[in-house]
Amino acid sequence: RSGLRPEMVWQTWIHAGMSSDSCTAFPALVCLAATWNPEMGHLFGKSLGEEALYRDKNMLLGPAVNIFRTPMNGRNFEYMGEDPYLTSKMAVSYIKGVQENHVSACVKHFAVNNQETKRTTINTIVDERTLHEIYFPAFKAAVQEAGVWAVMGAYNKFNGQYCCHNSYLLNDVLRGEWGFDGVVVSDFGGTHDTQEAIDNGLDMEFGTDLGSLEAFQNYRLGKPYLKLLKQNETSEKVLNEKVRRVLRMMYRTNMSEGRPWGTLASEEHAMAARKIAEEGIVLLKNNNKILPVNIGSLNRILVVGENAVKMMSRDGGSSEAKSKYEVVPLEGIRKYVADRIEVDYQPGYSSTASKSVNDSLHTEAVKAAKGADIVLYIGGMNKNLHMDCEGVDRESYNLPYEQDALIADLSVVNPSLVAVMVCGNAYAMPWHKKVPAIVQAWYGGTEAGNAIADVLFGEVNPSGKLPFSFPVKIEDNAAHAFNAYPGDGETVEYKEGIFVGYRWFEKEKIKPLFAFGHGLSYTSFDYGKITLDKKTIKSTDNITVTIPITNLGNREGAEVVQLYIMDMESSLPRPLKELKGFKKVNLAPGETVKVNFTIGKEALSFYTPERHEWVVEPGKFQILVGTASDDIRSSATFRVER
């Protein structure tokens, strides 16, 4: 959830056309994850919760924490990347921010909903270890660390049973193992069987029959449930438990004491959205230090690309938000330079025009680029069908609308080219060696254009890091390497197991285009030597890791210090490294800080399906600290004894 949807006509998906339901559009959750900053997660949740309060909403259907399994998933922009640890930490901070406003967060989509292709019918097969190590951790953290009040089931089936009334997921794991005491809600139209819904933990049914005044009566938990109760074919005790959980949520939200009023589309919330967008922007490449742009040495800037003028917050499926306003990138750039320099614009391509029109736009943009001092290309994807959009997956790993050819031609006529990519997913970059600077800007919400301008012109020093890997080609991705996406139309099996994202790239020694955790700065940082407070521990002990970080440059900047663990003597196959800690630190020029991490049993464990539990084995472990998964700056070893 990146903002509040407009009010709908009762029991339809038609907008009500109200004038009082405009809101702040916050960045997409993938941008939030790219901040690698739980403080931003809390700010995001708190601000969004305040907007929900003002609109008298008791539950926000988010955050979405499904793991990136393939770049083809049309809904990846709503999620928080490929790593369960990063996703967990960001989700917990978001949920706490929402719920301190007496508004329920609803973590979704439980579980293994990692593609939109056949999402309402596909049967997902995942082994027990992979579930617990990759696809469960963020949901578990939402329940046990954040105390989330609601969980939404997924559309798909898991092991043959629909997730919205799946006995293993809801009864055994969610309520049994994790102790969840909140409500389970179905995704809209995701309830298929009355008896299973009764028996398997579903509390609230959403949207099964839309369009009639009697819709609620026709739900699976409407008249069919009442009939079973009257015939004594189902337990009243189970019903009472469902009612108790719904009442508990009501007491936590709209019936709670001291519930505040909230605010909607305020200046404070706009600045929060801008801050998150700025922190999430990732500088992927900056050869010859072409960025930040020095406008004092320029006469003419050319901006190329439809995404420079396209509003992005109001599309994409259920992620849409009725934003009060949205600053597009061209507007932000022109506002920043004001009257100091000429800024021209060429669309370069159109997402709606014919090929002949696009050929003409391509030619005009390349012609205009020849005379510009610098070209700022603002492209990527959008929220059209088969792009970053709910309900359907992407059809190609390449950029749409012949953008690859356009970027390549622009680079030939003007070597001072910056590619600013607005999208929520990885994509091929056949032109990446020809472009000196590449910026991943995501969907930035209400203040997107201002945030982009602040980074391009150096008002903000970029500090975002990728929350997922960029494969060079789609076949480098594990699911595609196993031909295990999108399945055969009925079933999809996660044959890659725990080796998702960077875990797969490192196992197979595949070099990604840009690695998980990658992100540059306008300054540079030195990593000192790791020190450990002990070299040998028992499995129940903690170990303290300390590393000094120094800002070597002449401007203030923030660095995300990433800690990975390698189990060097495991009895089961484990990844070469797994993220188990990160901290974002802000440093003045020349400043040094000592960054501390505490590592314990949870960080060292793996899940063993034979024993159905997490275990720490004795043996040698390595701690690796760096600025990206493929850029480790310091390491140290220790032993775990029995």
Give an overview in words.
- The protein has 642 residues and is of the alpha/beta class.
- 52% of the residues are buried.
- The chain has a six-stranded mixed sheet with strand order 8-13-12-11-9-10, sandwiched between helices. Strands 17-25-24-19-20 form a five-stranded mixed sheet, with no helix packed on it. It has a four-stranded parallel sheet with strand order 1-2-4-7.
- The longest helix is centred in the first third of the chain and has 17 residues, at 38-54.
- It contains 18 helices and 25 strands.
- Helix 3 packs parallel to helix 5 and helix 11 crosses helix 15.
- The model has no long low-confidence stretch (mean pLDDT 96).
Q: What is the chains' assembly state?
A: single chain
Amino- and carboxy-terminal Cα gap: 45 Å
Residues in β-strands, percent: 15-25%
Overall pLDDT score: 96
Strand order within the widest beta sheet: 8-13-12-11-9-10
Model regions low in confidence, pLDDT < 50 over at least 5 residues:
none
Output the radius of gyration: 25 Å
| Share in helix | 25-40%
Q: What general outline do the C-alpha atoms trace?
A: globular
Structural class: alpha/beta
Query: Sheet bearing the most strands, described?
Result: 6 strands, mixed
Number of strand segments: 25
